[in-house]
Design brief:
The structure is a single chain. This protein is of the alpha/beta class. The chain has ten helices and twelve strands. It has a single domain (9-261), classed as Spore Coat Polysaccharide Biosynthesis Protein SpsA, Chain A, CATH 3.90.550. It has helices at 25-39, 51-56, 74-77, 86-89, 112-115, 141-145, 162-176, 178-181, 194-205, 207-210; strands at residues 9-17, 45-49, 65-68, 92-98, 102-103, 120-121, 155-159, 221-222, 242-245, 248-251, 254-255, 260-261. It has a six-stranded mixed sheet. Strand 2 (45-49), helix 2 (51-56) and strand 3 (65-68) form a beta-alpha-beta unit. The protein starts with 8 loop residues before the first strand and ends in a 13-residue tail after the last strand.
């Protein structure tokens, strides 16, 4: 087993928020946390921030724990590199990890019993705003030509276990040594993304240990353009109306029943009013 530590809860949500010159990621994370509390008031939420973001925080509303990074790896290992610290930093025995530009659209606690059959569980299918399983591979050329598992990291589950610790050791190695590892794969990106790194780790670890095609979850709605029958760089908010009416989030007049990865960072919904 990995080294023991103190946890604040059995199960909770974790996200990372590192502000940039163009995006207030802590604000996105706060909207996400509000969405979680909107549907699951008792579920704890933690956020990991860098020192600069921590210094700018005016309110910790909706968060049960704010974790300040001791080591910021972005300058040396790419903008997504801090994500590899999720296993080391989570305050939960079982973690549902979310990207910060994603909100919940309903209570998903009924997913947790299925999660518990796995040490780590990654989505291997996602849906568009019409709730149709995505078959478009516009953004997945690297995965296709390298025959990698078609996994996503907008939402995923892991628990405190030896198997999960070993998976994240692989993730850490890939991030820290990407300039060497990328030469082993065709058409590798210059900087490693979480989707790319986790797909390679799943391939090395065994896809059958990281995904479960028999389950319809975890999954999410992904609002990138081509996935939703728009041009690849389209801003969906210019084409689709969205609103929160009580407990229901709609986009393009379709009720959203899965976690909503809105992608366009300027989009917002007020869950405190909804």
């Amino acid at each position: 087993m990995p080294s023991q530590r103190e946890f604040i809860a059995q199960t909770g949500f974790l996200t990372f928020a590192h502000n940039t010159s163009t995006t207030d990621y802590f604000e996105l994370a706060t909207m996400q946390a509000a969405s979680i509390k909107h549907y699951m008031p008792s579920m704890p939420v933690a956020v990991v921030v860098d020192a600069a973001t921590a210094a700018s925080i005016k309110s910790h509303k909706h968060f049960d724990r704010v974790i300040v990074l001791e080591r910021d790896l972005r300058n040396d290992h790419g903008i997504f590199a801090n994500e590899m610290q999720a296993f080391a930093l989570t305050p939960f025995k079982e973690t549902i990890k979310l990207e910060s530009d994603l909100v919940l659209t309903r209570d998903i606690r009924h997913w947790i019993p299925g999660f518990r059959h796995h040490d780590i569980l990654l989505p291997n299918k996602i849906v568009n705003f019409r709730n149709e399983v995505v078959i478009d591979n516009t953004y997945r050329n690297f995965f296709r030509i390298n025959n990698l598992p078609n996994v996503y990291t907008g939402i995923y589950y892991f628990r405190f276990s030896t198997a999960a610790a070993n998976f994240f050791k692989t993730v850490v190695d890939l991030f820290l040594n990407w300039q060497q590892h990328k030469n082993c794969w065709r058409s590798s990106p210059d900087d490693a993304s979480t989707d790319v790194v986790f797909a390679i780790a799943a391939r090395l670890f065994g896809e059958e240990h990281c995904t479960n095609p028999a389950l319809s979850y975890p999954t999410m709605v992904h609002m990138k353009g081509a996935i939703n029958d728009m041009v690849p760089d389209a801003d969906w908010t210019e084409h689709l109306y969205s609103q929160l009416d009580g407990k229901s989030l709609t986009a393009g007049f379709y009720r959203q029943i899965y976690p909503f990865h809105y992608y366009q960072k300027h989009w917002s919904i007020d869950y405190d009013r909804g």
